[in-house]
Design brief:
The chain is an all-beta fold and 124 residues long. It is built from no helices and eleven strands. The strands form two sheets. Strands 2, 4, 5, 6, 9, 10 and 11 form a seven-stranded mixed sheet that branches. Strands 1-3-8-7 form a four-stranded antiparallel sheet, with no helix packed on it. Strand 4 and strand 5 form a beta hairpin. The radius of gyration is 13 Å and the shape is globular. It starts with a strand and ends with a strand.
Length: 124
């Protein structure tokens, strides 16, 4: 049984940083593409970032480019999202997700496994 567990969320002031982690158990972490999505109240779940199985390719939504960095440690079965220069509009529940293959990375529907989410709140 695959489980993804996020951690590292919290309340920060604008301009601050948080490092989100997502630890996997079960399954074969090293072959998955891993993604981060976020969902603000009353809005759809949006793509944030993704990383291919060996970390060779990374993808970001335009609004976080230059501020967020996705990385992974296959030995620890963990994917990270370093979030810097946070803005109030980054406030959301952040979810990690896993999928087989590397196509349609930004489409939430293509991901097979999801975590329960971690809240990130940015005050102005």
């Amino acid at each position: 049984q695959v489980q993804l567990v996020e951690s590292g969320g919290g309340l920060v002031q604008a301009g601050g940083s948080l490092r989100l982690s997502c630890a996997a158990s079960g399954g074969t972490f090293s072959i998955w593409t891993m993604g981060w999505f976020r969902q603000a109240p009353g809005k759809e779940r949006d793509f944030v970032a993704a990383i291919t199985w060996n970390g060779g390719l990374t993808y970001y939504t335009d609004s976080v480019k230059g501020r967020f960095t996705i990385s992974r440690d296959n030995a620890k079965k963990t994917v990270y999202l370093q979030t810097n220069t946070l803005k109030p509009e980054d406030t959301a529940v952040y979810y990690c997700a896993a999928k087989y293959g590397s196509s349609e990375l930004m489409a939430a529907i293509t991901y097979h496994y999801w975590g329960q989410g971690t809240q990130v709140s940015v005050s102005s």
